[in-house]
Design a protein that fits this description.
By secondary structure, this protein is an alpha+beta fold. 21% of the residues lie in helices and 35% in strands. It folds into 2 domains: 7-82 and 236-242, Aminopeptidase (3-Layer(aba) Sandwich); 85-233, 3-Layer(aba) Sandwich (Aminopeptidase).
Amino acid sequence: MHPLDNVIWQALTTRQTHCAEICGEARWFLRDITLLSAFREPSDKGYDSLAELAGPGGTAALFLDEPYRPRPGWDLLADPPLLQMIFDNGSLPASPAAASAIVELSKKDSPEMLELATLTKPGPFGSRTHELGTYLGIRHRAGDGVRERANEGVMEKDKLVAMAGERLKVPGHTEVSAVCTHPEHTGQGYAGILMTEVMRRILARGETPFLHVREDNTRAVELYQRLGFRTRLRSHLALLRRHQSGSGS
């Protein structure tokens, strides 16, 4: 099996086992990290194991090779088609001058990261997703970097307006993820700037960048193609919720 096949399962059984909760044939990330979940194969046994992990009302996000087929006890919340893309260009573009605006994000930035992800919806993102790898951001510059809120005398830091980082990690590969820009700051090239730096760091470790994107997000797909990514496979992101009763009815 290629490391990027059944990639969530691969991550949770290799480089990211420390982030996994396990039940039978199913694994998922700790819930405050991400909703991403997986099983060895989409069989009755796999779904039964996932149901035990989820419990009544629990939510799971799966990557499936085929569109989700209804299963007893589960409600389908979303099932968008995905592209898995892998970098095979061999070289990255030169860092633009704006790269100097990049800041490394950490635990203290988590509330802003979660707020930006909730607004822009780049994919499942939790309060501890930043622990999966390096996350970089760009803050909106205002004067010397700090602005004073009028009439309050309160010093307020610049706002996080774009970010990108690392999520799934499997042998020889790291996923570029959570690429998002605040709607009021699009058109500045921030996504490409941040992605290029994230990819540079992945390549420096001797690993290959890859990513997932909704197939209908043509603007993002075109950007990723310009950065040297090609489509490796098509799949589906199935966002599922277990019935509150926990039963299969």
